[in-house]
Amino acid sequence: MIQKPKGCNDIYGREAKIWKYVESIIDATMEKYNYNYIRTPIFESTELFHRGIGESTDIVTKETYDFTDRGGRGMTLRPEGTAGVCRSYVENKMYGDPNQPVKVYYNGTMYRYERPQLGRNRELTQFGVEILGSDDPMADAEVISLAVNIYKMLGLKEIKVNINSLGDKESRDMYRKALSDYFKPHIGELCEDCQTRLEKNPLRILDCKVDADNVLLKNAPKTIDYLNKESKERFEAVKDYLDIMQVSYEVNPNIVRGLDYYNHTVFEIEAKVEGFGSNNVLGGGGRYNHLCSEIGGPETPCIGFASGIDRIVLALELEKIKMPIVEDIDLFLMYVNEEEKKYAAYLAQELRMAGFIVDTEYTGRGLKGQFKQADRLNAKYIAILNSEDLDNNEIKIKNNKTKEEEIISLDVLIYYLDEQLNTGVEEDYHECHCGDDECHRDGNCGDDCHCHHHE
Ligand code: HAM
To answer: Is residue 359 domain-shared with residue 236, that is, in the same domain?
Structure first.
């Protein structure tokens, strides 16, 4: 049997409903903060990620899915979304639009060749936001508050925001030198990769997975002690805005992030979830003021963050958070003969257009089997179509909970269901543009209405 690739998941059934729910909260929150949706390619030229994320990062050296296309070009499946968004901002000259900053969000699959475990996949789905074209510390705080709000809206408790600052270029250079001086005498105590990192970019030693427990790393100099005056002031301003926005945080000098493009603010948000281990970091981000110029655009101050939807869904399940997932249907339409079936097809269409969740039989089950199927689908009501009733313009409706049955006129079916289910569907009837009060379709049918009131 052909199996899915290692580190990838099929999302279906109840889990798919949770995903859609999480995505609906993300979309609704983005609307409130006024971020526009952006879609960029799932693969980009390899060079973009090398230049953007950094040659010495684990992501670029060990985790990218690289391939050569049929035209001989080097391509890479995106391991993250920020580099692609910046490429798009530069290529489409969005910086020329007077409407700055550009605030965008995305939601899509990313690819990292990592060791799969709970909360760590090779195909992962991230949503993220980027503000391009603002250096305002308020923007940093907004991005953090947005992330926290989404987690809170989803019902996740005990969210911890860790923030730190890497400072500007001058501060980073001072820090880099301090790190290099600190690690040099201990080079023999570092793993092979870290020995190379010491030469290329000593900052990357701090997020080494092999040396993670080495005390040398724990006692290493902290970025925060090497910030120059401007960087310190900037960091204070970000914290002030977080206080104003009532976002709780902790300054954690160990946060350095695993991508090279960051400067000034960096942050990670973790959830205290039992059974999650070290993969409890739901999201992370920071400021990256030089990435756009690095890939050929103008110097553009930017801030953003991304969060793994896989991890959020896992956290919600591990925390047993109640979610408003629709796991039932309003009505199941049952039939026996061909004539009734045709009417079921017609009625299902009408009722769905009116706004009800309706399903029917597609596999030739007998009545007994259809009752069972209605139960499997958690149908609140069952309509048993019967030729004789239909000839009398009537229909048998059964409340699938109380098992009470009644025969009602087809003319009042929608009103009846609306009353029983309390769906509020009735209020929409008159939105129909055909102008006929008896027409039960909602606002989408336009003047070209073919409902039975007009035939
Ligand atoms: P990142 O920290 O590499 O940052 O990833 C952000 C989030 O994606 C993580 O906190 C985690 O929730 C999720 N994630 C990462 N790798 C995996 C994985 N293998 N399996 C499951 N989930 C994973 C970035 O990607 C930056 N682009 C964030 C950013 C946006 N910075 C500025 N703007």
So the answer is: no
